[in-house]
Amino acid sequence: MHKHHSALGLATAHSTATDAVDIAKSAPVNPVTLVRPHAASRAARFFTEKFPGRSMYAVKANPSRELLQVLWDSGVTHYDVASIAEVRLVSRTLPEATLCFMHPVKAEEAIHQAYFEHGVRVFSLDSMEELEKIVSATRGAEDLTLCVRIRVSSDLSKLSLASKFGVAPGETKDLLMATRQVADALGICFHVGSQAMSPDAYAQAMERVRAAIVEAAVTVDVVDVGGGFPSSYPGMEPPPLELYFETIHRAFESLPVSYSAELWAEPGRALCAEYSSIIVRVERRRGDELYINDGAYGALFDAAHIGWRFPVRLLREPESNAKDVEFSFYGPTCDDLDHMAGPFALPADTRAGDYIEIGMLGAYGSAMRTAFNGFGSDETVIVEDEPMASLYVPAEQAPASNVVKL
Ligand SMILES: *Cc1c(COP(=O)(O)O)cnc(C)c1O
């Protein structure tokens, strides 16, 4: 794993750094990860105040302990974990948090440990085999909340989660009835795919939930709409999150569930995308290609492998007057795959030695870094300026110099 200095220690080392431009002035040789606790806190408060149910954070999106603490301090009490390592991480970091083990295919040993050593009572499943595994690993526990994951479409999302998990319509009835027999509370959950670009994704999935409940004629205590809540990226600007919340609320209210049924969500990306960015240095320019010092094996996995576009800005003082042109990036490793097609719009005179901030990397980017070929960020700094885009700051309040128009 990557070596991290503590964010706090580095903030002291850069005690005068309050924004990305200050850090670029110190001419760092390696990429620097910037974190913005205020942005994650704002996102968490938005969800805890406005989502019409319980928001649990999907830890895989960014498992940083500093971030977990920020979310907890901002009112997020429940955490969606997918592995025993995530269970241990959250238990250690936030001993009072409630953990929900929402991976539908788990190791029996992981279920056993989660239940007996970490107090986990909520599990998801999408097959009879998994149900039997949970019953056996918990020795027939009678205090379980079991959420049956149903298969729904990912058509309205940028990243599909439709093929791997979720019980198919033809098998849902039997699984719901069997799970009802052993569960203290029965839930239905789904995931519409990551970066869902329309609230309709949830409306359609809720119709599948309705059909499943009607067909199985079971009492359902929890409806969990999963993750998929979008963030804002160039060319992928979603409608306001309030519209998603309204759509989900309306659909939930009309479901045939018990009067006391609870509504849950598992946002990952939406809670942490704005939390971090990186500052990279241009080591070489070749035409419209910039060789930068982070890439596909660093924080830019999605930019390389699924062509995701992230906002960029040149950190130069005085500012360049050149018109923006479109660049692609090469990362620092020896591998041709280490290429980010973009396009990334930067001033035409961008050159070797310049520093660039690449924004909105708090979700997945930070989590998937490796140290392949000896490259990557080993420094993390807390900054107080605004992220390069935000779903939580009304446009008219954002400082114009720092917000990239998408
Ligand atoms: C990945 C994942 C999430 C988070 O998804 P986002 O699109 O980041 O919100 C939530 N729930 C489950 C089960 C997941 O696998």
What is the strand tally?
18
How would you characterize the largest beta sheet?
8 strands, mixed
Overall outline: elongated
Low-confidence stretches: 1-16, 400-406
Rounded to the nearest angstrom, the radius of gyration is 22 Å
Report, as a whole number of angstroms, the end-to-end distance. Answer: 34 Å
User: What is the H level of CATH, i.e. the homologous superfamily of the largest domain?
Assistant: Alanine racemase
Share of β-strand residues? 15-25%
Report the helical percentage: 25-40%
Could you tell me the CATH topology label of the largest domain.
TIM Barrel
Number of helices: 12
The average pLDDT value, as a whole number, equals 92
- Say which molecules are bound, naming each kind only once: pyridoxal-5'-phosphate
